[in-house]
Amino acid sequence: MLENPAFMPNRSGMLNDPLSDVLKLANVQSLVTGGFAASGQWAIRFPAPDKIKFFAAVRGACWLQLEGEASPLRLEPGDVILLAAKRNFVLASDLTATPHDSHELFAGRSEPMVAVDGVAIADADVVQIGGHVHLHHSYGALLADVLPTYIHVHGAAPEAQALRWILDQLQRERADLPGSSLATMQLGYLLFIQVLRAHLAAGGALRAGWLRAATDARLAPALRLIHGEPGRAWRLDQLARAAAMSRTSFATHFKAVAGEAPLSYLTRWRMRLAEQALRRGDAPVATLAETLGYASESAFSHAFKRVVGLSPRHYGEQLRDRGADDAARAAVDGL
Predict the structure, then answer these.
(1) Above 70 in pLDDT, residue 335?
(2) Helix (H, G, I), strand (E, B) or coil at 258
(3) Contact 260/252 with Cβ under 8 angstroms?
(4) Is there a domain that residue 250 lies in?
(5) Which of 1-10, 149-158, 166-175 has the lowest mean pLDDT?
(6) What residues make up the domain containing 243?
């Protein structure tokens, strides 16, 4: 097996973190895109988001009425909502008020913060910030499909202490400080991770899948082995021993948490790494096969097609065709 090829992370001198590995694979980007300020009686209607959306009550309280939910949620100062479901929703001081349409309210605005009905932001009763989580089109389901409909982190909860600091920092970055764009981007990413941490710390559940597995303390030692050396011929007993569990208990727990058997997870993790390498053009197929623990290029190609649905060669051709189409669209858009 090759040592530390270009498409594989170098684990020397560090303890790998399964959650970070999964977030990196999904190419998570959490972007704070703006917000609004309001006073008195107001309401804003938002369409179903096409991405995971988040919003936070920086100042004041309001109601959230989510389509399909019988009762509204009360958002107090410091509360953060992560909305994974594609549902319409309304934010309001009074849910009986006639709502503004969010598209009309935010359209054509150059400033990130919008003043509802002309209220001065400094004097507003309520200030909210919001954004979305961008995921890679191929791997986003690893996260989006296992999240609950929404996560509500209460600002007064002990596990929200870090979130309160992040919200304060995001407010400071509104002052257009040097480097504020990059700082805001990094704070948005940290906010997403802290929402997940706070949800889990409060006993919140995730559906079976990779994200849940990556946050499971009992599976962490085994996942570190798989992620750290995906090309090694790991056996079930080795992974169970790392997790300090019997083979049967480990296999049962792993499938309940990850939604698949340990060695199936290993195979799919290898193929996700291979997909990344093929997208970047980091390595020929023969190198991928050797690095990921396959005895031959044909054995690797067979496994790749079984998981991905295409052979490595056809997958690469599809990527090139898609890249050409994207370039053509960009050229037309630029005319």
Answers:
(1) no
(2) helix
(3) no
(4) yes
(5) 1-10
(6) 216-319
Partners of 89 in beta bridges: 46, 66
Q: Which residues pair with 92 in a beta bridge?
A: 43, 63
**Residues 108 and 171 sit within 8 Å (Cβ to Cβ):** no
pLDDT the model gives residue 273: 93
Q: Do 103 and 237 have their domain in common?
A: no
Predicted pLDDT at 144: 81
- Specify whether 28 is located in the same domain as 168: yes
- Sheet containing 126-134, strands listed edge to edge, beginning at the edge strand earlier in sequence: 113-115, 29-38, 126-134, 52-59, 80-83, 150-153
Beta bridge partners of 66: 89
**Rounded Cα distance, 284 and 7, in Å:** 11
pLDDT tens digit sequence for 228-239: 999 999 999 999
For residue 273, the surrounding DSSP H or E stretch is: helix 262-280
DSSP string, 156-220: TSGGGHHHHHHHHHHHHHTT--TTHHHHHHHHHHHHHHHHHHHHHHTT----SSHHHHHT-TTTH
- What whole-number percentage of the chain has pLDDT above 70? 91
Q: What is the mean pLDDT of the chain?
A: 88
Same domain, 73 and 173: yes
Q: Contact, 45 vs 100, CB < 8 A?
A: yes
